[in-house]
Amino acid sequence: MKENIKRDNYIIIKSNEINNYISIKITTSPINHKIKKSEPYKFSGRGTRIIIFVKNKPVIAIHHSVFPSLKTLSQEIKEPIDRYEYTQKKFFTNTIFRRLTSNLIIWTENNYNTRLIDHKIGFPLLKELRNVGETKFQIILQQEILKTYASSTFKVKEFLKCEGYLEFIGDFF
After folding, report:
1. Domain closes at, from 54, 79, 109
2. 59 shares a domain with 41
C-alpha cells in the first residue's frame, strides 16, 4: 500500500493494487486545483474521492455522499456493529475504501461475477478491461451482460440498455 503520492492534479492518500489490471486509490484535490474539462472521470470540485483505475486509467470516481450504492454502507456505519466499526465511523472514506477493496478482490477471484459487486461498478470496469485487449475480458463481459439481463431487475436492465452494454453482445456471436 502506497500513501501520500502527489500527482499532477490530485494527491493519492492510499493505494491498493487489486491485480495486474485494477487498482483503487483514495485521492484528494489540492486547494488551488484547477479542473480540467477533459478529465474522463469528472473530478469536479475539491474533496476526497475513491477512484478505481484500470491500467492507470481512471474509470470510476466515487464520492461517498453521492454514490447511490453506498447508502446501505453509510446506514451500517451509523449503527456500528463492533468496536472496530465504531472507530472506523470517524473515517468513513477509509471504511468504504477497505470494503470496496475487499469486494473487488472477491470479484476478481470469482471470475468477475457481476452479482458480487454493484452493477454500476462491475460493468464499467469490465467494459474498460475489455479494452485492455485480452479476449477473456471480451468473453466475460458478454457472458455477464447476457446472464444479468436474463435474470435481473428492471432497473439493472435499464442500466444495461441506457449505457449501451447490449451492443457488446454481438461482437463474437
Report:
1. 109
2. yes
Residue 165, classed as helix, strand or coil, is helix
Helix (H, G, I), strand (E, B) or coil at 144: helix
Q: Are residue 56 and residue 121 in the same domain, yes or no?
A: no
Q: Which structural domain, as residue segments, surrounds residue 117?
A: 113-173
Q: Is the domain of 117 the same as that of 105? A: no
Amino acid at 130: R
* Runs of H (alpha helix) within the chain: 71-78, 83-88, 92-109, 119-130, 135-151, 154-162
Amino acid 171: pLDDT: 55
Provide the whole-model pTM: 0.72
> DSSP assignment, residue 131?
T
Q: What are the pLDDT digits (tens) for 74-115?
A: 444 445 555 555 455 556 777 788 888 999 999 999 999 999
